[in-house]
Amino acid sequence: MAELSRRSFLAGAALSSASMALKSKCEAQASPMDHSQHGHAKPERPLVPRLPALISKVTATSGIDSAFRMLLDGSDTLDAALHVCKTQEDDPKDCSAGLGGLPNVQGEVQLDACCIHGPTHRSAAVASVPGIRNASALARVLMEQTDNALLVGSDAHAFALAHGFASEDLLTDRSRKTYELWKEIWSKPELLGSGIYNPLWPESERKRHFMPDSQQALDSLVSRLEPLARQAGLGPEATWRSTFDAVSPAAEPVYVSTIDRNGQLSCACTSSGMPWRMPGVSSDIAVVGAGCFVDPDVGSAGSSGNAAANIKIAGAHTIIENMRTGMSPEEAGLAALRRIVQWCNSDMTALRFIEIVYYILRKDGAYGSVSLWRGDRTGHVRQFTISDGEGMRRTEDCRSLFECSPTNGCPDIRSKA
Prior knowledge:
This protein is of the alpha+beta class. It has 14 helices and 15 strands.
């Protein structure tokens, strides 16, 4: 582990100038994936942890603000966390969860969600649920009215109907057209050109997991294929993002953790999963201890990103156990990321297909967010949202293990002395 840490450090040091260039590019250029639409203040991190606190992905701005006000007013921590999730699930313009979430390979939106209530030590999750917009609320009903930890698929759908949820078509005009665009592009592999393939997949499936070999190549490919999005009927506000999702999809669940003035913790998460996934495949957020976890005596942790890699190391639980030994939130998260690198045998090509972000909140209000890569596949620096004390939300950059982005990659860490 120490050797790996040294190698990671050397890889990061060798690329520090590249990291600065990446950050400058992110600040100088706007794109449909830019975080500027969530323009949050960026004051200095407080020297002393403050309560209450809310940490999440940079998302659902209005939901975050009102959820934090709920904490200030003394609401239950799970009520506040689920409020953010519902805001995202109800937003048809968002592609990550609920209404408008991107579908699986068969064109059906299947949702995953989880909630954990620290004060009562209860939790539940649902997975691959079709036709139920507010999957996070469904997870809460499962938690409160049964002793079951996980309910999946059509049976979860039937449970939802029996408890007053309405079944609906979750595809919007945009998500349906994006699905048709994805089918059009992948029916003609020659459109994609050359790139790299995920070595963790069997040979017969490797080319389904494709990535252009640089950020410039990815940007060029998306621009070249964007006319197909216009032909599919997508408006100018959606063509770039829809083409990007068709070519280089990523799972971006909504995770939110809350703590009140009394140190009571809860968390919730919701997702439509990896776009174009196999039917029935679950996100890590539906696995308590992997994509989300709360220990009322220690803190909470959750993730967004590659489900398979995170499930293998039980990422959220691993982070909590690391904090139990005295690690800070960021140290605990980086240690979990190093375990993912170990699982991949430090193979940089395989790691380029993995994006993981952890959101961590300690019982005293100390917080942190760490990412495997400094940049995401669009080239933008990874960020998170934090609200604490009496102030409102602000954004901070995630602390990263690799000072580069998956599309550009880093020198193979195994080659470092």
